[in-house]
Design goal:
It is elongated and about 65 Å long. It has one domain. With 143 residues, it is mainly alpha-helical.
Amino acid sequence: MSAAGGAIGLTEVSPSEARQNAATVSIVGGVLLAVVLMLAYFTGGYNAGRLSRFDGGRQGFGVWVVGLLITVLLAVAGLVFGSEYNVLQRLDLPRIPIDEGSLATGGLITLAVIVLGTLLAAIVGGKAGERYHKKIDRAGLDR
């Protein structure tokens, strides 16, 4: 997403413009993050549903649980190892000055949307992948 933003000229924003549009920037960033994650979980659910003969929704739910477990494990690893391996801290990236209270509230809302959105996307993807086998079964019965 950062590369796409840089390609269309979003890097030409001055710090004062970023300060004025901080709410818009954070909302758009949260929405884009949620959309990308939901597409990823839909794709994972679709592939799991396609590989299983029945219960694509359950397979999609399994994809979501595995993704959630990996995310929790990575978060715990980040807490354990702390800033020792924080590569992003060493980079001199531009910062958008946003109030930390706004970040916390927006972060919690974004987290809730992402958790529920990815769950639904994975289950719907699993159901969509299961349709392949239903079509094959119907075609086989018509013979």
